[in-house]
């Protein structure tokens, strides 16, 4: 499959329109005052399954031809992508198998099962997950939908930025980066819809391999993530790295304390329940006032599947 | 001042339009499925100061003539009304003094001070609060704006239901009841805008004097509230009782466990951060399926100022 481009984002927007929500853009004058900037929050925590991941999953599921679709889909995921693919597959009436690592967030696994997928547990390493995925795909003849390197997934994730850029004129757009599906899809959307908008990717200090990769020009893959942002522990994919590099994306690294403070700010002032991984972009904007002061800044609130039980018992 | 009527709600809507938000109406297919009904949530936690109270406070502040306004306003409040009056007073550029009981939620007091009001602490009894209010009002010549018996406050609170009834055709409307400002204002809005809509008031078991008052036809005032719903501990006012009684409102009583479960449902499925007092109406709907099944039901999510620090440390 060729690398995805802006046309693929447009095609994804048309393909997912009957299934995914056009999420609202939210504002907060209190947070604007704190940031000294005009912030525009794309509310992907209000997307179906509570995360932007539904966009890419829908694009992948509805992008299958009838013969492929009959054999179902397989993926591995620490949470939101698994739930998203399960719901998208149920929407098309096809099977979905999800390989999940031991130690994944309980609430997210429950959601995946509730959407009708079959769970397969494995050791919490990339190698173990990919091996079990390949084995299942071989047995079933099913299509593997990778959480962030699949071109249809990348194009689907780009539709969030496409909608935001259609709604607001932006000087900069800041998105969280883990594996890079949202970040690289956003790069495609910016390139086609608003090339003057600067792209920043925000990353937790305990999983900052994207910043290291962009700084050195070589993709870093050997690291052990250590962050509360459970959605951002994946390793930046090769295709995602190339797209971010060629677009000139800039990485901003923030520590978990700043991310938790930003999350609580969104909870208390905007009354929106976002997950830690979604707060990293706002944390980056607040930590780098010099980059954003006086500008119009878009932020993608990527998801809202916080494990409240863990929080309340912490 | 004469008892407020539907015309006063219409006048309030016009008076507060430049200051208060028209809040969105939210839906959740997951919660609809649980309730077996079509629920329409009026998102007053997204109102300014995070609660419907801003409506009544604005109507009272902007309803003063120039001479009254110069001398400022005084009130007592366990939280949201104090913050709302402080912000409304600041909007008109007049002084605001707020008597707060010892033991009030810390986050709410901080909000009142942040809006520029002067705090005056007193013992946590109605008598102590009213005495200090009267004393301050005498010293300053300032108008006392009672949190729920003031006719302008009642009419202002009715504008939330007015907006909801303009946006949705409803068979029933369910609102939380504490002192009764929102409940009686809602009764006025229904009477004028949608008389076929049934009014239910939802009340915590540990402060269920409205249910007792409506059942006996005599207002119960001698009780000691015991509920996590800190916004619903006030005693139903005399004028509020008369308005609810003459409208034929029905009371539904729910325990705090059901209210917390409903709150978590809104947090996890709608990603909206509401406070316990706001969840009591949904709890009542879920506990009384026989009353609401298959019907179009409005619910006012009254506020979002939950004390997250207390929750996380609990």
TrEMBL record, chains A, B:
<dbReference type="InterPro" id="IPR036052">
    <property type="entry name" value="TrpB-like_PALP_sf"/>
</dbReference>
<keyword id="KW-0456">Lyase</keyword>
<dbReference type="Pfam" id="PF00291">
    <property type="entry name" value="PALP"/>
</dbReference>
<dbReference type="GO" id="GO:0000287">
    <property type="term" value="F:magnesium ion binding"/>
</dbReference>
<dbReference type="GO" id="GO:0005524">
    <property type="term" value="F:ATP binding"/>
</dbReference>
<dbReference type="GO" id="GO:0018114">
    <property type="term" value="F:threonine racemase activity"/>
</dbReference>
<dbReference type="GO" id="GO:0070179">
    <property type="term" value="P:D-serine biosynthetic process"/>
</dbReference>
<dbReference type="GO" id="GO:0003941">
    <property type="term" value="F:L-serine ammonia-lyase activity"/>
</dbReference>
<protein>
    <submittedName>
        <fullName>Pyridoxal-phosphate dependent enzyme</fullName>
    </submittedName>
</protein>
<dbReference type="InterPro" id="IPR001926">
    <property type="entry name" value="TrpB-like_PALP"/>
</dbReference>
<feature type="domain" description="Tryptophan synthase beta chain-like PALP">
    <location>
        <begin position="17"/>
        <end position="303"/>
    </location>
</feature>
<dbReference type="GO" id="GO:0030170">
    <property type="term" value="F:pyridoxal phosphate binding"/>
</dbReference>
<dbReference type="GO" id="GO:0030378">
    <property type="term" value="F:serine racemase activity"/>
</dbReference>
<keyword id="KW-0663">Pyridoxal phosphate</keyword>
